[in-house]
Amino acid sequence: MAAPVEKNKNSANTVEIASSQPVVELSHVSKYFAKVVANKDVSLTVHAGEVVALLGENGAGKSTIMKILYGLYGKDEGTIRIRGEERQIKSPADAMQLGIAMIQQHFSLVPTHTATENIILGNVHGYIPITECNRRIRTLAETYGFDIPVDRKVGELAVGVQQKIEILKALYINASILIMDEPTAVLTPQESEVLMQFIHDFTKQGNSVVFITHKLKEVMEVADRIVVMRNGVVVDTVRRTETNEQQLARLMIGQEIVPSERDEALDFEQAVSVLELDNVSLALKGTSACVDSVSFAVHEGEIFGIAGVSGNGQDELCDILCGSRQPTCGEIRFLGRDITKDSIRSRIEAGIGYVPVDRYRDAMVMDMTLAENMLLKSSFSPVWQSRGFIRQKALNRYTAEKIVEHRVKATGPNDTARSLSGGNQQKVVLAREVDLGKQLLIFNQPTRGLDMGAVDRIHKVILEEKERKKAVLLVSTELTELFELCDRIAVMYRGRLMGVFHNGEKTTAEIGLLMAGVSDQQEVRA
């Protein structure tokens, strides 16, 4: 018996969703990678005019099932029907012919080409009337309220504009089914609002959107139905109007998440300055300064946050603080001592811990054991040496203790780092750096790409270290994370600090404008 007609709640002019024939129907689809089950017996539907949110932790299989629909992966079992007809989608070209487009988390744009050239790439042949193409793309952009400089090179444009270009690539081929994979990961709050409005407008015309995310707030804002995945399977499908964030969180991770509690506000007049930066700059050869005259202080018992869209100098600032880059000018003081020219080793010995943004490249050796990874930054310490040999039993014992303390899912110290999930790898890095950072801890996006359970554990550890009176510098692109944890928040844009504010002094919208480079004075004039 056919289910009743549902209406899209997200638009004023609602589009009826006749569930008797979905535009997309996946039935019992499975996908295996060697011994890993990526998807198992997944069934879901998408209707015309509907936004379906695909919700789950990292590794839940959300992106994999959509890559099967888009033709990037081949299914091992099951069937795919598009508008009632079974289809074999073997490539993205097959998907695009069926009106399916996918905007992936990492954009597929050519930075040296203009916006128009990127949009028409692969869809025009022979002589290209570029003036006419620019006009058509400009008209298409205006239809959806996008302000796109069509003749500028993509590499010169902000991340939010690049995402709009990715969307226009889909609209240019008349896609009616749009898959969006973590689309707000690199956007400011204002850019996210523009994206949500586009989704409402797009589905109002009878088109469909699959919205892949792990952010509960976005799901409750944009979705009609929510498909929750865990460990490669669909655990539930619910209507947005019949659920809430707490229920969705339980479905995602299988348990309740208890929010971390912050201490009372820090008394900055009495607190000791642990880290001080005075007009620190870094200019790489042939480029403008990627860190430009940055000054701030981090106090004992303080969590100091740095907000900003990725690529605005945060990584370079962290490199300067850990000692892997030397600043072009300025001074760095640690507990009153100038450490500007100190080596990485001397900073480790002084009590500075650093969790980098890319654990695979900068924090771990994947083919080493967990014990060897715990030793990486302190191999010179006499604690682990005896007559020129590593005290292996003591190291294994220490590693086993940390595995238990930080709830790392591993069989023991001799497991390789590669055998662990991303969240558990990050817990190992965290365990090592928390012990090394006796005075100062620097975290560069420590929860990026992690599931809610791992994020919750890392947040609790950061707050525990604050209680131990350590100074904490937290770089994050997630404003909710910064508002939840930090005492003060600085905003970084193109290498400069747009301001430093006590938590609660600025709203999310105000911080978002600063992240986009709009100062308080500019906002007032506007």
Would you mind describing this structure in some detail?
There is one protein chain. By secondary structure, the chain is α/β, with parallel strands linked by helices. It has three domains: 6-99 and 179-253, P-loop containing nucleotide triphosphate hydrolases (Rossmann fold, 3-Layer(aba) Sandwich); 112-175, no CATH class; 273-525, 3-Layer(aba) Sandwich (Rossmann fold). Helices cover 33% and strands 25% of the residues. It contains 18 helices and 24 strands. The strands form six sheets. A six-stranded mixed sheet has the order 8-9-10-5-11-12, with helices on both faces. α14 (422-436) packs parallel to α15 (452-467).
How many β-strand runs?
24
Going by CATH, the architecture of the largest domain would be: 3-Layer(aba) Sandwich
Structural category is alpha/beta
Based on Cα principal axes, name the global outline: globular
Strand content: 25-35%
CATH homology superfamily of the largest domain: P-loop containing nucleotide triphosphate hydrolases
**Total number of distinct structural domains:** 3
Please report the number of helical segments. Answer: 18
How are strands sequenced across the largest beta sheet? 8-9-10-5-11-12
